[in-house]
Amino acid sequence: MAKKVEIYGGFGEEFDDGVYDSVRKVCVGVYGDRVSSVEFEYGKGDQSIIRSHGQKSQESKEFVLDHARGEYIKSVEVTSHGNGLISSLTFITSVERDREVFGKVEGTKNFLEAKGFDKLVGFRGRSYLDRLNALGAHFAVVLTPPVKKLEAKGGNFGDEWDDGVHDNVRKITIRRSEGSVEMVKFKYVNGTEIVLGDAHGDTSQLPYVKEKFVLSEDEYLTFVHGHYGQKFPVGQSVNLHGRFCDGITMLKFKTNKDTYQVLGAETEGYEYVGTSFVLGETDHKIVGKTMAKKVGIYGGIGEEFDDGVYDSVRKVCVGVDGDRVSSVEFEYGKGDQTITLSHGKKSSQERKEFVLDHDEYIKSVEGTFHHYYFISSLTFITSVERDREVFGKEVGTKFVLKAKGFDKLVGFRGRSSLDRLNALGAHFAVVLTPPVKKLESKGGNNFRNEWDDGIHDNVRKIKVKRYQESVEIVQFKYVNGTEIVLGDAHGFTSQPSMVKEKFVLSEDEYITSVHGHYGQKIPVGQSFNLHARYCNGITMLKFKTNKDTYQVLGAETEGYEYVGTSFVLGETGHKIVGFHGKSSTFSLAQIGVYVSPINNA
């Protein structure tokens, strides 16, 4: 499945080379102020296919892609004259290389690129005798782990469509008739950019019902539930020739915060016949997710950037011009893939590299920013003992990028302008090194906001807020050496009439296990209420230490019983050194722990 990108330029004889596995080589002919010809060498399996357009000239140059490194064209910068001919072409690839312009950069500038579709897999355009008049392209999705493509579900007929891969989904638009989903359309976000997908399905002006669901900035899709077939009167035969004989009769979008449903309601005298399906994977969002903690940003104003979260930082290149850091270039690792992102303007005067060994990672960054609000120096502290190396001049206000409990820097964010780095922040992840272990969180309501306090030396204070028969909020205070670290509050923070309970541990006290229960406390003989606000909430928490036991909720009450599931978190000979879990709109949904051997403290 490939996406066509608009043809830019003038009139001429139209061509479309189609879609291939790869572009292996481009040969560009230039004559005077115009591109006179293009020759594309495509790959299809083991076969090479060559397509030429225009008239070859004496001045012809090749652009060869590095097949061994998996290099591919990501976009093409095109300039065209007002008289309808291409004046220059510049190819941007998946590998960092010097910029090479074919022709002269004159006229109107356009880009051949497709948001969500990274790889150019074929060209199209218009040519005439001795010139290339216009150029367009086909782009395909590049699936790099941990992103996965899950098979489409539904009936077998219809045109294939593909919106590509993005950072997140921001908006869902659906048009439906009485018994079938007629059209879907999605709005995506890539960094700070909004990408509107095409409408898929019946786009006519028939009087369909329109439904819209807008996701908040920290909300993401976790699963899509659906059904295809028919809804018809009980006892009536399935109409194989009906308009909706194999249509989508229900869609339910589950997020980390809510559920949005279209169709699928039960109606007396009617039944659904067909097939139900679920799209999604546990611990993934629709396009994938990684748990990390944001830190910063320190410095001044500028154009904001956020590189996202990766497996590792492999290399940092810092450009310095006078009293300021003029540019940064970060090389990240994601599986076997290397991703390079740059910010600011590369300095020709002074540019130095900071290369990390295979298992080495950045633990913190020390920096200074000038009173004019640009970064003046950067120093990287890693997991390996090495000499301190300062990039730039240590002038101005000092800052440190560090996340207590989160040891490994896995991505940068910040602000930059033309010739300087204005501000810097980062993403940090937990590093699980034996003998510390992460024990799976327990509780109900799996499709919720994930949270993680990271790993510390010990727990010093437990704060719990409860409302009626459910735990609403937990918050922990930790100790790291001589430093106290206050974790965030996790759960529903907007209920004013909650009961607050606090437990302070002594210096030589530590938590050995957490006992809990999730479900409901209901009158004896009453059925479990699936629609209750606390149908699967945490109904009891008991913290056992080497000295005492601290309990919230769970007391037996005459005429009531607990229905649900009990759990225990902990390991013999270990203490708890951090908490993680999930929280819903209304309460704490799940709780998990990090444990470390007691004699390792």
From TrEMBL:
InterPro entries: Jacalin-like_lectin_dom (IPR001229), Jacalin-like_lectin_dom_plant (IPR033734), Jacalin-like_lectin_dom_sf (IPR036404). Residues 1-141, 147-288, 289-430, 436-597 form the Jacalin-type lectin domain. It comes from the Eukaryota. SMART domains: Jacalin (SM00915). The keyword Amino-acid biosynthesis does not apply. PROSITE patterns: JACALIN_LECTIN (PS51752). Keywords: Lectin. One of its GO terms (molecular function) is carbohydrate binding. Belongs to the jacalin lectin family. This is Jacalin-type lectin domain-containing protein. It comes from Arabidopsis arenosa (Sand rock-cress).
